[in-house]
């Protein structure tokens, strides 16, 4: 005996699933559009804090996780200039690393 209810090959069910997927997408967009700026600011603040954690040892701030964050520094160097400008530092705070 073959049961087709759970297989998902019914074209009507596929159309209903596609419509529900699009309805969910639009509902999420409508809901999150008001908070998009706040979400972006919160994400940027988290990124700034993470950047400070990664480069804190180079700026003289003791970092207990320096061993683990050292290998992340090359990955974050592309965003370093934007970060120190956003933090209010006109020039790079690192003596041995000049990005601008």
TrEMBL record:
Entry-linked InterPro entries: CC_star_Cory, DUF7990
Superkingdom assignment: Bacteria
The protein's name in its UniProt record: DNA helicase
Originating species: Halomonas chromatireducens
């Amino acid at each position: 005996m073959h049961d087709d209810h759970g297989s998902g090959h019914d074209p009507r069910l596929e159309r209903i699933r596609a419509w529900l997927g699009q309805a969910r997408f639009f509902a999420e967009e409508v809901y999150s559009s008001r908070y998009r700026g706040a979400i972006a600011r919160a994400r940027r603040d988290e990124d700034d804090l993470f950047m400070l954690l990664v480069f804190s040892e180079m700026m003289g701030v003791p970092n207990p996780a320096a061993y683990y964050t050292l290998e992340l520094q090359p990955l974050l160097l592309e965003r370093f200039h934007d970060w120190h400008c956003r933090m209010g530092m006109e020039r790079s705070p690192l003596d041995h690393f000049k990005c601008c």
